[in-house]
C-alpha cells in the first residue's frame, strides 16, 4: 500500500486538509501526517523569532528543518502539501510584508525543507493551494495578491472554470472520464478559495492550466524527474466537500470521478517510487525457491475467480432495480444540486465582497499613510532606498561605510532563494537538547552530510 505524507498539524487543523486525507484513503492509500509543528518543536519560539530576523539565522533554521525532514520522509512514498490560511513570508521572494496579513514562518520553513528533501530523493510531490505556492517559492518563484477586479471575477469559496493546456499531464489524467479531444484544451470546474496566486513559477516548472481570467496560473508541472504537480484549486473538495458543510461543496458522479483520478495518479506514482527503493531487495527475493509462491499464486487465482463470480451475482441482482426508483432518485439529486448551487453563490458573494473590501481598504490606507500598515510600508520604503544606494555604490566600486558594508552582506544572503540556501547548507544533527537550551547555538551543531545527495 502506498504511504502518503500530508502536511498537517492537529494544533492548527484545517478543513480542506481533512478532505485531502480522505481522498487518498478513498484510493486505498496509507496516509500519515507530516506534522510541521512537530518538525520545529525543539526550537523555542523566542529563539526561533530571534534567529529568523537575519539571513544567517534563517539559514540555520533551514538546516535544522532539513535534517528533521530527512527523518519524516524516510518511510514515505509521496509528499502532499496541503493548503493553509496563513501567507508565505514575502521576504522569501523579495517582497514586503503587510501587518494586516497572517504569516506562519515556522510552517513555511518546515514545508520548504520537506520539498527540498523530497526533491533530492526523487519522490513524487503534489501541492494544493498553499502547497502550490510553497513549491513555487522554493524554486525561486514569486506570489502576488489578487486585486479587487480579479477577486470579483473568480469569486471566493466557489467553483471556477479551469482551462488545461493540450500537453498537460493533468489534462491526460482527468480526461479519462470526460471523453476530451486530445488535440484541444480542456475546460473543467474546480473549487477555489484563495486571494493570492503564483506570479512567477519555480525553475524547471511550466504553467499547465489557467483560471477563468485567462492568465492566473492554476496548475504547474515539473519538466524533469519524478512527477511534481501543483494546483491552486482544490480537487479534494470535489471528492469529499468540506467537513463543516460536507453536503454543500461535495460533487457526485462524473465530477467526483474526475478529481479522484488525480489522487489515483499520485497513488500509482508513489507505488512506482516505492518499487524503485525496494528494487535490490526484490531482486534478492527472486533468487529464492519459488515452489511455495507458485502454489500461492494458484490459490490466489482460485480466490480471484470466486470473487468475480460473487461480483457478477451482485451486479445481476442490482439490475433488478425498477426504472421508476431510478427516475425519482435522479430528480431528487437534480433538485439538491440546484439548492446547493444557490447556497454556494450566496456564501461566495458574501466572502468575496469581504475580501474585496479588505483589498480596497489596504490601498486607501497606503494612499493616506495613516495606520500601522502604512508606517511599516514607509519603513520598508526607507530600507528599499538604502538598498538602492548600496547597490549603486557597489556597482561603481565606491567604498562603503561600515554600516552599509554589513547591510551589503545581508543583502547578498537575502537575495538567495530557499532552494540555494538549503542546497548549499548541509543538514545538521542537533544534540538532544530540551526546548529552551539553545538548539541553534554554534556549540550544539555537528555537521552531517546529507543522507540523500
TrEMBL record:
Q: What's the domain of life for this entry?
A: Bacteria
Task: List every stretch annotated Disordered.
Answer: 430-453
| Record InterPro entries | Class_I_gatase-like, Peptidase_C26, PuuD-like
SUPFAM superfamilies, A to Z: Class I glutamine amidotransferase-like
Q: Which GO terms describe its cellular component?
A: cytosol
Q: Which UniProt keywords apply?
A: Glutamine amidotransferase, Transferase
**Which residues lie in Polar residues bias regions?**
443-453
One example of the protein's molecular function in GO is:
hydrolase activity, acting on carbon-nitrogen (but not peptide) bonds, in linear amides
The record's listing under Pfam families reads: Peptidase_C26 (PF07722)
Q: What is this protein called?
A: Glutamine amidotransferase
The organism is Legionella worsleiensis
Amino acid at each position: 500500500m502506498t504511504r502518503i505524507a500530508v502536511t498537517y498539524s492537529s494544533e492548527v487543523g484545517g478543513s480542506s486538509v481533512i478532505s485531502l486525507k480522505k481522498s487518498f484513503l478513498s484510493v486505498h492509500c496509507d496516509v500519515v501526517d507530516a506534522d510541521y509543528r512537530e518538525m520545529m518543536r525543539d526550537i523555542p519560539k523566542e529563539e526561533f523569532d530571534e534567529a529568523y530576523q537575519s539571513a544567517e539565522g534563517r539559514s540555520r533554521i533551514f538546516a535544522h528543518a532539513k535534517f528533521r525532514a530527512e527523518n519524516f520522509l524516510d518511510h514515505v512514498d509521496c509528499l502532499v502539501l496541503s493548503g493553509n490560511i496563513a501567507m508565505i513570508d514575502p521576504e522569501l521572494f523579495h517582497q514586503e510584508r503587510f501587518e494586516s496579513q497572517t504569516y506562519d514562518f515556522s510552517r513555511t520553513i518546515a514545508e520548504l525543507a520537506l520539498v527540498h528533501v523530497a526533491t533530492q530523493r526523487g519522490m513524487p510531490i503534489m501541492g494544493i493551494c498553499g502547497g502550490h505556492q510553497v513549491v513555487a517559492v522554493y524554486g525561486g518563484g514569486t506570489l502576488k495578491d489578487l486585486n479587487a477586479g480579479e477577486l470579483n471575477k473568480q469569486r471566493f469559496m466557489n467553483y471556477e472554470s479551469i482551462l488545461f493546456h493540450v500537453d498537460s499531464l493533468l489534462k491526460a489524467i482527468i480526461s479519462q472520464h470526460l471523453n476530451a479531444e486530445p488535440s484541444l484544451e480542456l475546460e473543467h470546474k474546480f473549487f477555489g478559495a484563495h486571494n493570492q496566486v503564483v506570479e512567477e513559477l519555480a525553475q524547471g516548472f511550466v504553467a499547465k492550466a489557467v483560471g477563468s481570467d485567462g492568465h492566473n496560473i492554476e496548475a504547474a508541472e515539473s519538466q524533469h524527474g519524478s512527477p511534481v504537480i501543483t494546483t491552486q484549486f482544490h480537487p479534494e473538495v470535489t471528492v469529499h466537500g468540506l467537513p463543516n458543510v460536507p453536503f454543500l461543496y461535495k460533487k457526485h458522479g462524473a465530477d467526483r470521478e474526475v478529481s479522484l483520478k488525480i489522487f489515483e495518479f499520485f497513488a500509482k506514482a508513489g507505488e512506482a517510487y516505492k518499487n524503485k527503493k525496494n528494487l535490490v531487495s526484490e531482486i534478492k527475493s527472486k533468487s529464492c525457491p519459488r515452489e511455495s509462491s507458485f502454489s500461492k499464486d494458484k490459490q490466489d487465482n482460485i480466490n480471484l475467480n470466486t470473487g468475480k463470480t460473487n461480483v457478477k451475482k451482485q451486479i445481476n441482482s442490482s439490475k433488478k432495480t425498477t426504472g421508476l426508483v431510478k427516475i425519482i432518485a435522479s430528480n431528487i439529486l437534480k433538485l439538491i444540486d440546484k439548492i446547493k448551487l444557490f447556497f454556494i453563490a450566496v456564501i461566495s458573494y458574501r466572502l468575496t465582497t469581504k475580501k474585496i473590501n479588505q483589498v480596497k481598504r489596504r490601498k486607501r490606507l497606503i494612499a493616506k499613510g495613516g495606520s500601522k500598515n502604512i508606517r511599516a510600508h514607509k519603513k520598508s520604503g526607507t530600507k528599499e532606498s538604502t538598498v538602492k544606494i548600496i547597490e549603486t555604490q557597489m556597482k561603481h566600486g565606491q567604498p562603503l561605510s561600515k554600516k552599509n558594508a554589513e547591510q551589503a552582506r545581508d543583502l547578498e544572503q537575502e537575495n538567495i532563494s530557499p532552494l540555494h540556501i538549503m542546497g548549499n547548507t548541509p543538514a545538521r544533527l542537533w544534540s538532544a537538547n530540551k526546548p529552551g537550551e539553545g538548539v541553534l547555538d554554534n556549540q550544539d551543531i555537528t555537521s552531517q552530510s546529507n543522507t540523500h545527495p
